[in-house]
Fold:
Amino acid sequence: MINFSLGLLLSCNNHLIKKTTDSKISLLDNTIDSAINHVDSITIMDNHFLVIYKNPDSLIILRDKDTILREIKYNNGFVFEDFNSDGYKDLIVDYVSNVGGIKDVYLFNPQERSFKLVDDLSKFPSPIQFTQNYYYSYTRAGCADAYWISMLFEIKNYKTNPLGEIYGQGCEEVPKKIDIFKIAMNEQNKRILIETLPLDTIERYTNTKWGFIKDYWTKNYLKFIK
Structure:
């Protein structure tokens, strides 16, 4: 990643913009202004990509000075990380949300030398890859996080496909249990209950429910993709 060092420092909504070298100023000639919230750059396959988030809620990607993407995106900043473990850095954009962990991910497409948005990833908060194209999520579902949901899903051709769901129910008003569903035809409203476990199953794991979720999906995901 290119580290910015510029003799210009701008501030917007108490967020400081990263610095850049004089040689890169020309890339920003028509973009830098007081509305910029966050800017960063990266070089992939000999192409220089500059990403800018500016008010009012615009995400802009330039490749070698040419704008290749401009979207309205209310976000909480972005980072470059290899989200899908293919050896290329991707663009990960965090949402401003009281749910937490909601992201948009633009995977780097080496054939097009561009970034492409993964459809509907925002439906799967705090996504974690555990093998190949398979991921699981975690989200609070009420009762001060005593209800919680983890989804098993795959990313294929830049689309998300739900495969399974773990629903933890820990409030006093209902039987404390963990229901596990298989999702038919990648349609989330078509759930098939395949297993119910007592809630205290999670106490066997060092990280309680998070340890259970990781272990369960890692050991059992093949049952959900057949």
The radius of gyration is 21 Å.
